[in-house]
From TrEMBL:
EC nos: 2.5.1.48
UniProt-listed Gene3D superfamilies: Aspartate Aminotransferase, domain 1, Type I PLP-dependent aspartate aminotransferase-like (Major domain)
Protein name, UniProt field: Cystathionine gamma-synthase
Similarity comment text for this entry: Belongs to the trans-sulfuration enzymes family.
Enzyme class: transferase
GO MF annotations in UniProt: cystathionine gamma-synthase activity
CDD domains reported in the protein's UniProt record: CGS_like
Cofactor(s) recorded in Swiss-Prot or TrEMBL: pyridoxal 5'-phosphate
UniProt KW rRNA processing keyword: no
Species per Swiss-Prot/TrEMBL record: Maribacter arenosus
Alphabetized UniProt keyword annotations: Pyridoxal phosphate, Transferase
Pfam families recorded: Cys_Met_Meta_PP
InterPro entries: Cys/Met-Metab_PyrdxlP-dep_enz, Cys_met_metab_PP, PyrdxlP-dep_Trfase, PyrdxlP-dep_Trfase_major, PyrdxlP-dep_Trfase_small
Domain of life, source organism: Bacteria
Length: 384
């Protein structure tokens, strides 16, 4: 049976994988080589030069395609390198409509790099998908969606946005970093491209920076492969191996991330020193219904604002947490705490940030897979 027919929890382990052809190694070897011997000019075994293709990277690319229900995967040196490749599909004068509550690095790449080359970006609240139609004109070529959004945990209706993208014949990209294919599979909901910062949940162990793109059609895959090879920001063999190893436990880790995050969110929600908790699992979250429909569970990310909206209190809490390490990034087995205004979202001007709710007082948690009682105890002592 082909690995296409497997259930998700088997695809993470077997999807697109086969024992190594040389010695039958079950895990793909780390082919730490830049080039490959040819018997005669052009006489090679499918690999010529490692920017163009490398067997370890190919194994990862096959795994990425499998877990997202795509046909083609491309692995990059970072999530931003993957985003960079997508925007290079466009030409000067083309326009993009993106969610307004966006990863800070994506915003910076769009506004500070690609705007210089004449590509125009509109940042729009897509909680009501119809809103984005006001920004569409004949130059609009691409819609970029993050859901859940980072760090405000808004949920965007992927199917509804896909219908609009189809109506106007635009490419539709979903950054699936926060949800992972364990929770939602955007290609099945109508997206054309899924993008990942594999640095986060796919890698899952905070030991690698990598990115990925997954698509269904060959024509689009070929265009992206051309850009990947021409621009060269490929995922190295060692990094490919690490992400591949991470993916094998994605389903088990995600289950525990979601379970622990649910405990933490409910604990914070009842805490007298907390003003507001942003987590799509709450019945009164403004997008709870669509979250329930398009996601399997509600993910491992939570944001909150301490009572009194006081920046000193925010700093005090993030410094006092011990098990939650104060650090950039998310999605690793260990719990992290972040201060978006000065860390992940520092690249966005304060007025822009605050328009979407990223206040200086906001704290973001990446809930890890430690024992939940230890996590609650750490929050308890920090909030005291
Ligand atoms: C981290 C992140 C990125 C960027 O990925 P890198 O691997 O850091 O380049 C893009 N989108 C989201 C949602 C992220 O969290």
């Amino acid at each position: 049976m082909g690995t296409k027919d497997l259930k998700f929890n088997s695809k993470t382990i077997h999807g697109g994988q086969y024992p190594d052809k040389a010695y039958g190694a079950v895990m793909p070897p780390i082919y730490q080589t830049s080039t490959y011997a040819q018997t005669t000019p052009g006489g090679h075994k499918g690999f010529v030069y490692s920017r163009s293709a490398n067997p370890t990277r190919s194994a990862l690319e096959n795994a990425l395609a499998s877990i997202e229900n795509g046909q083609y995967g491309l692995a990059f040196a970072s999530g931003l390198a993957a985003i960079d490749a997508v925007i290079k599909l466009l030409n000067p004068g083309d326009e993009v409509v993106c969610t307004n509550d966006l990863y800070g690095g994506s915003y910076r790449l769009f506004k500070r790099i690609f705007s210089k080359y004449g590509i125009v970006f509109h940042f729009v609240d897509m909680q009501v998908p119809g809103n984005l139609e006001h920004y569409i004109n004949k130059r609009t070529k691409l819609i970029w969606v993050e859901t859940p959004t980072n760090p405000m945990m808004k949920i965007i209706d992927i199917k509804a946005v896909a219908a609009i993208a189809k109506k106007y014949q635009m490419l539709f990209v979903v950054d699936n970093t926060f949800a992972t294919p364990y929770l939602q599979q955007p290609l099945d909901l109508g997206a054309d491209i899924v993008m990942h910062s594999a640095t986060k949940y796919l890698g899952g162990h905070s030991d690698v920076v990598a990115g990925g793109l997954i698509v269904k059609g060959k024509a689009l895959a070929d265009r992206l492969y051309f850009i990947q090879n021409a621009s060269g920001a490929v995922c190295g063999p060692m990094d490919s191996f690490l992400v591949l190893r991470g993916i094998k436990t994605l389903h088990v880790r995600m289950q525990r991330h979601c379970e622990n995050a649910s405990y933490v969110a409910n604990y914070l929600n009842k805490h007298p020193k907390i003003q507001h908790v942003y987590w799509p699992g709450f019945k009164d979250h403004q997008n709870h219904d669509i979250a329930k429909e398009q996601m399997k569970e509600f993910g491992g990310m939570i944001s909150f604002i301490p009572k009194g909206s006081n920046i000193d209190e925010t700093i005090r809490i993030v410094e006092k947490l011990k098990l939650f390490t104060l650090a950039e990034s998310l999605g690793g087995v260990e719990s992290l705490v972040g201060h978006p205004a000065s860390m992940s979202h520092a690249g966005i001007p304060k007025e822009e940030r605050e328009k979407v709710g990223v206040l200086d007082e906001l704290i973001r948690l990446s809930v890890g897979i430690e024992d939940k009682d230890d996590l609650l105890a750490d929050l308890e002592q920090a909030l005291m």
